[in-house]
Design brief:
Elements: E1 4-7, E2 10-12, E3 15-17, E4 22-23, E5 27-28, E6 33-35, E7 38-41, E8 46-49, H1 57-66, E9 73-75, H2 81-84, H3 87-93, E10 98-102, H4 103-113, E11 120-123, E12 128-130, E13 135-140, E14 150-154, E15 159-161, H5 182-194, H6 198-209, E16 215-216, H7 227-239, E17 243-250, H8 256-270, E18 274-279, H9 285-292, E19 295-305, E20 308-309, H10 311-323, E21 329-336, H11 342-350, E22 356-364, H12 369-383
Parallel strand pairs: 8-9, 9-10, 10-11, 15-16, 17-18, 17-19, 19-21, 21-22
Antiparallel strand pairs: 1-2, 2-7, 3-6, 4-5, 7-8, 12-13, 13-14, 14-15, 19-20
Helix pairs in contact: 5-9, 6-7, 8-12, 10-11
Bound molecules: MU-OXO-diiron.
Length: about 375
């Protein structure tokens, strides 16, 4: 992608990765992603804000060369390799450039990349870097989503560079207001990456809301020319505001668990409660993560296989525990042919998730009328008080 001018002396110089389909070996990327980097050229100095995933240095260098840019500073907002992994290459290409990062970032950069200590400058919240008519102000924002993360604000142009925060995994487009589905991409990104850090997200948001903003330019996905649109979403998501709806993740071998799941869905729909089913073997886990952002209850359905919880459901339970969704209640639906085990193991895996188990329905063989009655009771327990 060629460099794009955002304002006078400010360019997007990052790259698109249309083909990447998985991030961290965990997160599906149906629309690829982008590694956005930004160049700020002042009267006396030039700063590059974040870099790109290793392997994409050529695209970044081509954009810098096209702008005849020689960065004096490389701002490392975040140490993860998709943004910081090409800093070593930039230090080699620009021998006078210095890396600007948080003190925690310096520790992590040393461990991950071994940057020379004499080329690193640490900054803290409120520190500024003057480039001549362009002033960068730094705001530490730990745990959005690593401990060293910081945000960079360009005062004169009112542009925030928040790295991962407020981003989206999609290679499409340049500006969010040009993309029909950027909110969908932003929501699944929040669910996958920021949801476990909602408190930290709220603290970061407070800092952001104190700034005058014309643009928010994150390091993944589109740039926001209407900052309030993404900020209003993050206000709700970081606060853990939920909707009266139930997310059901399930796997069934011979249909018994699925019959319980469908009876639950029918019961909830009769009560005009929104419900979404996620058959785990076919589910894009990013869609499930997005639904967990604002679902008020979660149900896991799985049979016992080989003496324990079906592995697809075990993976989903571990994912729920790791992502820390704001739902307060959970239900379990299970079936078995020889001996029970799945429901017990699911409860063990969900321990520590803060989810209250509102009910467990476990059928031996084909579900009978008493199991369907228990499912209706579970629906009531899950939605009590909504
Ligand atoms: Fe986009 Fe946390 O890296």
């Amino acid at each position: 992608m060629a460099a794009i001018q955002l304002k006078s002396g400010v360019h997007a110089v990052g790259v698109k990765d249309w083909e990447r389909r998985l991030f961290d070996g965990l997160i599906p990327l149906p629309q690829g992603t982008s590694y956005n980097a930004y160049l700020v050229q002042g009267d006396s100095a030039t700063a590059l804000i974040d870099t790109v995933n290793p392997g994409f240095e050529g695209g970044l260098m081509a954009n810098l060369n096209a702008l005849d840019a020689t960065p004096d500073y490389i701002v490392m907002n975040h140490a993860e390799p998709d943004h910081a992994g090409s800093i070593s290459c930039m230090l080699e290409a620009f021998p006078r450039a210095r890396v600007v990062l948080s003190s925690k970032g310096a520790e992590m950069a040393s461990a991950l990349y071994g940057h020379p200590r004499d080329r690193v400058d640490t900054v803290a919240t409120g520190d500024t870097l003057t480039l001549g008519g362009k002033t960068l102000r730094f705001l530490e924002a730990p745990f959005v989503h690593w401990p060293e993360t910081m945000l960079t604000y360009l005062e004169e142009d009112k542009i925030l560079f928040p790295c991962d925060f407020l981003g989206a995994h999609t290679a499409a487009g340049v500006y969010a207001d040009e993309l029909e589905d950027w909110q969908t991409a932003a929501k699944r990104y929040f669910g996958e990456i920021m949801m476990p850090f909602r408190r930290a997200g709220q603290r970061a948001l407070q800092q952001v809301e104190a700034l005058e903003l014309d643009l928010i330019a994150p390091s993944h996905g589109p740039i926001h020319r209407e900052p309030e649109r993404v900020l209003s979403l993050y206000r709700r998501w970081t606060a853990g505001e939920t909707e009266p709806k139930v997310a059901v993740a399930y796997v069934s071998m011979w249909g018994a668990t699925e019959r319980l799941v469908r009876h639950l869905a029918d019961t909830l729909l009769e009560q005009e409660i929104q419900v979404r089913l996620f058959p785990l073997p076919q589910t894009d886990l990013g869609e499930l993560a997005a639904e967990l952002v604002d679902s008020r209850a979660i149900v896991l359905g799985a049979p016992t296989v080989l003496g324990g919880l079906h592995p697809a459901a075990a993976y989903a339970a571990l994912l729920v525990r790791a992502l820390k969704p704001p739902a307060e209640r959970a239900g379990l639906l299970s079936s078995y042919g020889w001996a029970a085990g799945a429901a017990r193991q699911a409860q063990e895996l969900l321990q520590g998730s803060k989810l209250e188990i509102a009910g467990v329905v476990e059928a031996h063989g084909t579900p009978q009328p008493e199991h369907f009655a228990q499912v209706r009771q579970l629906a009531e327990a899950l939605t009590r008080g909504w």
